[in-house]
Specification:
single chain, alpha+beta, Alpha-D-Glucose-1,6-Bisphosphate, Chain A, domain 4, six-stranded antiparallel beta sheet, 4 helices, 6 strands
């Protein structure tokens, strides 16, 4: 990412970034948030289309320190979901590397296990889109 880590961090800790970096076809909408800026303990409720079904998602920010935060799904389509966001400064503070570590479990036991490969593929597409949308936004080319 050709932006300094402070700029990327500022963008990602604004709750509204979710609507900007999520693919339009998912129709993500922020229903409620306890604050406009992501802080430890803040909660976010969203609605989005996953595959063909509209679903609601409630998450809480479990930890936050400079350039890293962890969100956990409290209620939503997965049996378990945690997402660690890590931002590293590179190239003499001029660029930022964004790392996403996701730990999830699909519900429905063995039947759900059959869909894990599909879920990984869809997540890769989602995060490729997020990277491109972040780049466009921070470079001023929305």
């Amino acid at each position: 990412m050709n932006s300094p880590v402070d700029k990327v961090w500022e963008f990602y800790t604004d709750v509204k970034h979710l609507e900007i970096v999520t693919p339009k076809e998912m129709k993500l909408r922020i229903i409620n948030a306890t604050s406009e800026k992501i802080t430890e303990g803040s909660e976010i409720w969203v609605e989005a289309k996953l595959i063909i079904v509209k679903t609601r998602w409630h998450s809480v920010i479990r930890s936050l320190k400079p350039y890293q935060y962890l969100d956990e799904m409290v209620k939503g389509p997965f049996k378990r979901w945690t997402h660690l966001h890590i931002f590293h400064s590179t190239n003499d503070q001029k660029q930022t590397e964004i790392l996403d570590e996701i730990n999830f479990k699909i519900p429905y036991g063995r039947v759900g296990k059959l869909f894990e490969g599909y879920a990984y593929t869809q997540l890769q597409k989602l995060f490729d889109h997020r990277e491109a949308a972040t780049f466009r936004t921070l470079q001023g080319n929305r």
